[in-house]
Amino acid sequence: MTSERHSAPSTVRSYQGIVRLFTDLLIDARYGWVPACEEAFGTFPVAICHEWNTLPHLQDYEGDPEARPSTREELQVFLDYADDQVERAVRAKRKGALAAYRDATLFKMIYGWGLRRTETSKLDVVDFGRNPQARQFGRYGTLNVRYGKAKKGQPPRRRNVLSVMDWAVEAVTDYVENVRPRFGFTDHPALWITERGGRLQPGSINDRFEAYRDALGLTKELTPHSLRHSYVTHLTEDGVDRRFIQQQVGHECDSSLAIYTHVSDDFMNTSLHKALAPAFAGA
Predict the structure, then answer these.
(1) Residue 225 a catalytic site member
(2) What value does the mean pLDDT of the chain take?
(3) Which of 3, 75, 135, 275 is deepest in the core (most CB within 10 A)?
(4) Inter-CA distances, 191 with 1, 20, 231, Å
(5) Is 260 a catalytic residue?
(6) Are 30 and 162 members of one domain?
(7) Residue among 68, 102, 117, 228 flagged as catalytic
(8) pTM over 0.85
(9) What is the percent of the chain where pLDDT is above 90?
(10) Dihedral angle at the C-alpha atoms of 213, 217, 220, 222, nearest 10 degrees?
(11) Is 116 a catalytic residue?
(12) Of the residues 68, 102, 108, 116, which is catalytic?
């Protein structure tokens, strides 16, 4: 007895593409397979993969719908715990104090700019720039994400993310200017470096996140990507224009953004009251 197999959307799409190419070859009049099959088998091949029944048409977004953002309370507890690890390492005069500070700032950055884990890992110090519309952020007004998620067979997509959270900018500024130089590798381009002078890898980000999450007893549903979900959700709840958020996180269509948004019940109730207010204004 065989068990049911669930393939990833990208795998299903690849299978469909192979079948489509094969049937296109069979029915191409230049090769004569249609009359040959009809003569030999009494039937002929036809196309079976169309725009209306293949994955790209039926499913615009391939993300995991079960992933969820952190609540504001979970996020605050997590970031506070990350800061506490820095203080504990400093008090104990442990060697890992710099790494703890780096990681605490890194998590703030993933949330503060709505980044993916790999995008964050590949950032360089020079990727920051000024935004004339937000002079208060200085040279940290924009972030040039050079390694955004790529489409299949294409190079990484680049995008500029505007800084919007002042507390996150302050945290990153302090790290870059006061903490990162203490690692001792001033010539290394990476924003996030290890104590041995290498670039921090996505797996290490995941390991530290899970260690903090589990120590706090938070649900295992939460991952580093939950911070990106939180960015989208919290900005939506705060009334930020969805088109702006879509540009910030690098989504081409609003349907992709929608699955990132898990607004709270309070937000839904407030929105409902705003929608109904004009109708009951004269009552």
Answers:
(1) yes
(2) 83
(3) 75
(4) 52, 44, 21
(5) yes
(6) no
(7) 228
(8) no
(9) 50
(10) -50
(11) yes
(12) 116
